[in-house]
Structure formats: structure tokens, C-alpha cells
From TrEMBL:
Residues 1-226 form the Protein kinase domain. GO terms for cellular component: nucleus. InterPro entries: CLK_kinases, Kinase-like_dom_sf, Prot_kinase_dom, Ser/Thr_kinase_AS. One of its GO terms (molecular function) is protein serine/threonine kinase activity. Keywords: ATP-binding, Kinase, Nucleotide-binding, Serine/threonine-protein kinase, Transferase. This is Protein kinase domain-containing protein.
Length: 241
């Protein structure tokens, strides 16, 4: 949690969004410690006896910075350029419907999942339909308005069902997607602790396929900090829709 709070603070304090700039490639590889020097921690209990944490190497400075700013884009209007790294890039980038500041928010949702649970959110699927199907089944269905926008650029992604269109995926890839969705749900179930539900709701909102539903960068910082302080207000269940 501490790493995520520092990451979100570093992201916001860089003032990228305030300056109308989008990082476009937020991922763990671009989140580094300011100083990775290690020091030996000699822990002792109240009686001066070594604890089980004695003589461990720990970071001397836990401050974090976000790097790889060469791909940062100035956002005057929504862009349709393909940016980012596959697996950390939201649907609007793949479909060409135009992306904005919430691109970084989706990427931050991927970072939240990876730092908290130790594996990438989006599996390495060989087909874009499979990636969309995973997002649909793991996070939630694509809303009709979003489906309509996507169909104008990628009409092959969804079924023809007008009432409830679903992502089209072959039987071969459907099995693979369902297996990965099962693993995703198992991971969330096995990490139940105080505040985990609130954390999950924020993460799910960041990962929403619809950029209009995602929170702002500032919202992410506030939510994580309040959760860490133990004073998180009742969770808004709509965040996980």
C-alpha cells in the first residue's frame, strides 16, 4: 500500500495532468526508487533482544519517482495515436476512439493490481478480442454507449445482439479467457483484509473500460491515503460497476 501511495503522489506531484500532459506509459518498469541504497536494519525488542526482523537489508530511502517521460504527450484534444505498452493500455487506445488523461488512470489500475497481487492484470493474449473479453468478464460489461463508439472503428469486436452486445471471441480463446478470469477472481478472494474491499473498488473503477467512469489522478491519491490512515468512509458500491 505504501508503494502505491508514493507512486500516486509522485504521479500527481509531477503535475503532468495539470500541464495538459499524459504520461501514456505508466507501468512498474517506469516506477523506480530515488535511491536504491540498502542499509542493515538491526531490530530489537523492548528488552534489547534481537527480533525476527534483525539484520535485514532495507531501503535507506523509500521515495519513488516516475521515469521514461520521453513518451509523454501534450493533450490539446483527444488523440487517436497508439501509445503505451500492451497490457497496460486501455480499450480506447486499441479502438481509435480517442484517449485523454484517463489513459494514465487505467494504467495506474494495472499498476495497483500488479504491486498488490504480484502478477500482471492483463494476461499476454495473442488476440485483441481475447483481451477485451477478459476485461469484460473480469471487470464488467461494456456499456451500450461505449460499444456504439467502438463499433464505429472496430465493428468486429462485438456480437450483433442489440440488447446486450458481448465481446466476440473464438471457442479456443474463450477457454483461455475464462481460465484467466477464474485466476483473477481467486486472487481477489484470497486477499481479504481490512480495507481490501475499498482498495478493490478503486482498482476496478480505474480499470473500467469506459474512460468516463474512471476517477482522476487526484481521486486515486486521496482514496489510497485515506484508506492507509484507516479513516476510509463507506465504500460507494457504484465504483465497482
Amino acid at each position: 500500500m505504501e508503494v502505491l501511495i508514493m507512486t500516486s503522489r509522485s504521479w500527481v506531484s509531477s503535475d503532468l495532468h495539470t500541464l495538459d500532459m499524459v504520461h501514456t506509459d505508466l507501468k512498474p518498469d517506469n516506477i523506480v526508487f530515488v535511491d536504491d541504497t540498502l542499509t542493515t536494519f538491526s531490530g530489537q525488542d523492548s528488552h534489547g533482544r534481537p527480533t525476527d526482523k534483525a539484520n535485514r537489508n532495507v531501503l535507506q530511502d523509500v521515495r519513488i519517482k516516475i521515469v521514461d517521460l520521453e513518451d509523454t504527450r501534450t493533450l490539446i484534444a483527444k488523440s487517436t495515436a497508439f501509445v503505451g505498452t500492451i497490457g497496460y493500455t486501455p480499450p480506447e487506445v486499441y479502438c481509435g476512439i480517442g484517449w485523454g488523461f484517463s489513459l494514465d488512470v487505467y494504467s495506474f489500475g494495472c499498476v495497483m493490481y500488479e504491486i498488490q497481487y504480484g502478477r500482471r492484470f492483463m494476461p499476454d493474449f495473442p488476440q485483441v478480442n481475447a483481451s477485451f473479453a477478459f476485461l469484460e468478464r473480469a471487470i464488467g460489461p461494456f456499456k451500450p454507449m461505449l460499444v456504439k463508439e467502438i463499433r464505429e472503428h472496430c465493428d468486429f469486436l462485438f456480437t450483433d445482439d442489440t440488447k446486450r452486445p458481448r465481446v466476440q471471441v473464438s471457442r479456443q480463446y474463450a477457454r483461455l479467457v475464462n481460465a484467466e478470469v477464474g485466476s483473477f477472481r481467486d486472487i481477489l478472494r484470497n486477499h481479504i483484509s481490512n480495507g481490501s474491499h475499498a482498495f478493490k473498488c478503486l482498482m476496478v473503477r480505474c480499470l473500467n473500460a469506459d474512460s468516463r467512469v474512471r476517477p482522476t489522478a487526484e481521486d486515486c491519491v486521496k482514496h489510497l491515503q485515506i484508506q492507509a490512515d484507516g479513516s476510509l468512509p463507506p465504500v460507494d458500491e457504484t465504483m465497482a460497476e
